[in-house]
Amino acid sequence: MTKPFYVTTPIYYVNDRPHIGHAYTTVLADVLHRAHRLFGDESYFLTGTDEHGQKVEQAARKAGMDPQAHCDLYSGRFKDAWVALGVSYDQFIRTTDAAHKAFVREQIQRLFDAGDIYEKEYEGWYSTGEERFFTEKELVDGKDPISHRPVELIREKNYFFRMSKYQAWLIGHIEANPAFILPEFRRNEVLGFLRQPLADLCISRPKARLAWGIPLPFDENYVAYVWVDALLNYWSAVKDRKWKDGSAAWPATVHLIGKDILTTHCVYWTTILRALGAPQPEHILAHGWWMKDGQRMSKTTGNVVDPIEMAGKFGADVFRYYLMRDMVVGQDGDFTDAGFAATHNADLANDLGNLFSRTHKLVEQHFAGAAPAPARGSEADRAIVDALGALFPAVEEDFRAFRVDAGIKKVIAHIRELNRYIDAAAPWRLAKTDLAATGTVLYHILDGLRAAATLLSPVMPVKMAKLLELLGIPGAPKGDWQRAGAYPVGVRLAPVESLFPKIELAAAEIPAPAAAQPAPPAAVKAAASEDGLVTVDEFFRTKLVSAKILAAEPVEGTDKLVKLSVDAGEATPRTVVAGIRLHYAPEALVGRQIVLVANLAPRKLKGIESRGMLLCAKMKTEAGEKLVLIAPESDAAPGSPVG
Ligand code: MSP
């Protein structure tokens, strides 16, 4: 029995658009989640938005919006970003959800009843930027030491949590659990912080100053401090959730956070949980910050990397790969356009992509496109089999220990080894004299490619599903797949396709084109029909609706068709047969939004009645025609008319 895995990201403030920092943590969580599922664990992935507090209230006011409407808008932007980046969370919590608000009030009442909350007149330097008080000593040049913004002296009655009471316990807990705070240098940082006496935590804000929050259950003139409200999300989201074995989903296996929110998580959150008698998370893992060209990203400098733009320009998987491969978990990373293109071209286009296309060609030429059987082989053959056997447990161990970058590098190192192996064995020459030996070499390479596609599938779910499909073994890995030699002999490879077209450096520097939208039918503007033009009425005879793919499976006896079950907002889902399998693996289609031609006369394809057609853009690429799905830019309810 494997252990269930519960991973969280910070919940993001709804005063900003999703940026690379948000994208990094969320993709990291997604990769860990997918990896645990791949290795057979039950896994649960929570993300969401942090919607109360002064920053949000101010951002809403600035935009002239009601705070809730502002939260709805920005929260939606995060959800859209995660769709664009292929993030497969299980739950998206919003701190304005009624259930969360009720849970927060309940827990604060429990702290109060236990005598862990008291009221006190307090005077301190308040920073709006950081939404907290600082002591005179903590100020730097009279300004807030974190955001360096002005502070104001405020005197007011507030409620305090007896955090100091748990200081000794916390030190003991961190010392007894070396992997509680990761990486180790962050653990030492927290222990260093705890060498000073720990102050109690102000957990209230007077409503007169801040109305946008959760009212305290025992004094409605106050709202809860936004961090207390926010931290409780990790527990409130799963308070009633059970794993399959009946045990409670709380506590979390790991909270992924950025290094700037270490104290709130390692000190505030842990002591609150302790006071509530709740179990502690197993790990709190702080990652570093992304810089751009060696500098801190900021809107003022204009050097911010936009994750949605990157995914739109190069594809989500390729961007995810760079984020995961280039940042050592825990350290800071530096994003450069040249680095992005270089990593992509070296690892994916050259090492992985070329190995696949070379091997594919040889299998076509000498084995009619079907995987040959391996013979016992030479020493070099046996060495490659042993290396592959060792790769599976090593990568699994890395992923389980959060060393995603290290796991990826091991897979790519194996691919490089396979490239050396094929160069040394030279099957293109060997085939002239020894077909059995040629087949052995090609089999081991196909087996290595299978392993790479599977092990990298948490990082690049769509591209690797495609590679597995091209290898003739679509879908989730089956049986004891973590074994060298699990590639099925005789399986037919699908027609070759270029998986990772090279990124030319200039392209990485060219500003992004507008998101791929279907070109507005210019003709629609014309009132009357001229040569080749249609009228508005003619155009709208075609009923286009937004729809969602619920299920997808290959159609037997063809490599082009997929049978889809599509929610078009009707009483029952429709069956649509689409000729896009060479471009999308069936499982990569599930959950996608599409534009459906809804009033097309039904027709039978391979004996299946298809009711509708989905829209794609047809692009010419070096490798031939490529189809890309056309979809609404953000979630549109199935059945919404497109026009
Ligand atoms: N709302 C709080 C978290 C509450 S969790 C109970 C918050 N939100 S945030 O939207 O401001 O930041 C979210 C995360 O983004 C933080 O973990 C922060 O470290 C991370 N990043 C912000 N900029 C970053 C980079 N440039 N690079 C990497 N991560 C960075 O804090």
Fold and architecture overview:
Residues 510-530 have low confidence and may be disordered. The protein is built from 20 helices and 26 strands. The longest helix has 31 residues, at 337-367. The two termini are 52 Å apart. The chain is globular. Strands 1, 2, 3, 4, 8, 13 and 14 form a 7-stranded parallel β-sheet that branches. It has a 5-stranded antiparallel β-sheet with strand order 20-19-18-21-24. Strands 6-5-7-9 form a 4-stranded antiparallel β-sheet, covered by helices on one side. With 643 residues, the chain is α/β, with parallel strands linked by helices. Residues 10-13, 20-22, 24-25, 50, 230-231, 233, 257-258, 260-261, 289-290, 297 line the site of 5'-O-[(L-methionyl)-sulphamoyl]adenosine.
Q: TL;DR of this structure?
A:
The protein has 643 residues and is an alpha/beta fold.
The top level CATH class name of the largest domain: Alpha Beta
What general form does the structure show? globular
Question: What is the percentage of strand-forming residues?
Answer: 15-25%
How many domains make up the 3D coordinates?
A: 3
CATH architecture of the largest domain: 3-Layer(aba) Sandwich
Chain-averaged pLDDT: 90
Q: Number of DSSP strands?
A: 26
Helix/strand-derived category reads: alpha/beta
DSSP helical segment count: 20
Main β-sheet: number of strands, strand sense, barrel status?
7 strands, parallel
Question: Uncertain regions: pLDDT < 50 for 5+ in a row?
Answer: 510-530
How far the N terminus sits from the C terminus, by CA atoms, comes to 52 Å
Rg, nearest Å: 28 Å
Q: CATH superfamily assignment of the largest domain? A: HUPs
Share of helix, binned: 25-40%
